[in-house]
Amino acid sequence: MDSRKVLVCFIGLHLWVSAAVSSPSTTSELWGSGLIRITLLWLAFISLSYLLSRDALATGTRPVFLLSWTKSARWGEGLAFFLILLVMMQVYMTLKIAIPKFVPFYADPYIAQIDRLIFGTDSWQITHALLGAKGTYVLDQIYLWPCAIVSFGMSLWACFSSDRAFSRRSVLAICMSWLLLGSWVALLFSSAGPVFFEHFYGETDFSELASNLQPDLMAVRTQAYLLDNFGKPGFGKGISAMPSMHNATYVLLICMLYERFGNSWPTWIAVAFESVVFVASVHLGWHYAIDGIVSAVLVPIVWFAVRKFEGTPFRVSIYLNTLTKPSVREA
Fold first, then answer.
1. Which sign does the torsion angle of CA 290, 190, 281, 305 carry?
2. What is each CA distance from 112 to 120, 183, 285, 288, in whole angstroms?
3. 330: in domain
């Protein structure tokens, strides 16, 4: 099956689910607040409709627009993919906000206990003992803007790569990772994270961690914002710990780089970056270590699964190639 058709069906299904589980106020906040979001949604719909109707262009003639489409397919398809990722993030935010409504947070005590069994103590105790307060500020900065820049660059590369088969795999894998892991696995293991433990469970297991995080940290301010707006609609809101989508994103980046460049320096830079993100997610109280470990196990499964949906090149391109090849009579 063509991976683009799988992508359209996958996003369409989750778009329908997000509309079904969200309240009218949530839908209005996430989808109706601003002409730009509405415009992006319609642009995505038009672009996808055009891509799905591409086979109809391969007629017995050779009109000019076929040549133009072939030359610009990378950028046209890439733009459609980028718009899909924007829509996907809106869907993800809608589903993330709805998780505690359907499955209230319950898994944190079990996840925390697994962490203690693996590491002999709470994993944050290890990072704070090794890195101290100065390390906390460094990790706090890395977890914000560098992560945002890397994620944006990764999305652009996935959408506009000159290898269109790789691009289709990457975009499908990004969407599946965020929606399957970030929504359905998160629903199955509904959890808030160490820094929110006391608020949702009334127990002080992680109060020492909270006291170690200074109030001027971006992480602490963001965590306070999420608590103040818990259950409210809006982009960037919602609380969910298992699995860690920060870690999932950069494990997927490692998979993408390894496929394109093998065991080379770009891949190892991504490994180093993901290692820092993993430590930061634990150190700043966002996640238990097991949250990142689960992401590291599940994301490669998603990446290899998308190979099943790899499609063939545009039939338009095949058609044009046959026109440019010399015929047997000409030879």
1. positive
2. 11, 21, 12, 7
3. no
Alpha-carbon distance 115 to 274, whole Å? 19
pLDDT tens-digit map of 160-195: 998 888 999 999 999 999 999 999 999 999 999 999
- Residue 245 tokens read as 């989508």
Dihedral of CA atoms 159, 163, 166, 168 in degrees, nearest 10, equals: 50
Domains identified in the chain, total number: 1
Backbone angles phi, psi at 268, to 5 degrees: -70, -30
State how far the Cα of 166 lies from the Cα of 313, in Å rounded to an integer.
12
**Residue of 116, 136, 98 lying closest to 240 (CA atoms):** 98
Cα-Cα end-to-end distance for the chain: 36
Domain around 108: 3-324
Read off φ and ψ for residue 72, nearest 5 degrees: -105, 10
